[in-house]
Task: structure prediction
Amino acid sequence: MGLGRYVVDAVVLEGRSPSELARTHQVSRSWIYELVARYRQGGYAALEPRSRRPRSCAHEVGPKAQALVLQMRRDLVRAGHDAGAQTIAHHLARRLKRVPSVTTIWRILSRHGLITPQPHKRPRSSFTRFEAQLPNELWQTDATHWTLGDGTTAEILNLIDDHSRFALAAVAFATVKAADVVQVFFAAASAHGLPAALLSDNGAVFSGRSRGGTVLLETELARLGIRCVHSTPYHPQTCGKVERFHQTVKRFLAKQPVPRSVAHLQLQLDGFRAYYNQRRPHRALAGRTPLVAFNARLKAKPPELPETVTDFRVRHDKVDSCGRVTLRYLSQLRHIYVGRAHKGERIRLLIAGANVRIVRDDGQLLRELTLDPSRRYFGARTPVHNVVRQVSSMS
Result:
């Protein structure tokens, strides 16, 4: 028998004084009177402890806001985007005057069974985290695969900034070749500036170490004074940011219609990159978008960037019947001789200021020269750097 029932029996059945019971048991008289009143209304069952939860809460999230949280969660999951509590809070700021806290949103999702426990994950305190201090201090690049509607496999070349996670490029190819990597790199550099260093794995288009040589990307980076860094073999954690970006891209693509072609896949990647850079809050960036983080600080640059390099671009062309290609430099057309043996071949011109490299699609370097502003024709015997050598095999 509990103290409450004993006191009630003493008052109701024995007729004892509530004041006497209060002094004897060191309880308040008001509590005794309350128990007696509850007994007379509901019997002994009414003496059981009652919930102390308040009947109302001024800061409780209303049903309309909770429904909006759940709807936002469904929409983000359906679109293949991140749908965590922080992302939902970021998007709700545009639709609610008073946005629930991230913890409150997490509790709403958990209450509706939308949170999947992951006890196998390592605690964050065990991670050794690295991040570049400035934008363009370090870029990371890697390629991954995606299956098209006809069953063939396409490759996606991703390029991100280590500091801001800004997606510099996400380009689809049937097969990524060495010249494709250089082209994507130059396009990103033209839009966002040259990086101080580039990190990649040891893939055949990124590194020639396994074959005892260098690939086209490595020679271009060395020419521009950019430090080229490769991860330890069989250790993808070194390129962890771009590897994690692969996962984010694939989660998005899995929710889209199966692409019918490489061009269709590229349209999907372009839409994803715009959302990822400009609208998606990033947890590693304190809720900022990658675009905001990329533009928040001064950008790093190569420590040994030649002063003569004023622009860098990639041009696609074809060798004419006379074995020449034409390039506009300082508002004048320059005619460069490559060789009659290459007439009709598709080539790419890698231009960095006055320095020009002519490369075939298979990665063979046909000619390298520095343009003389006083000359318009560069024949086979022009006293410039003229090299014909195999830079890399495209595998």
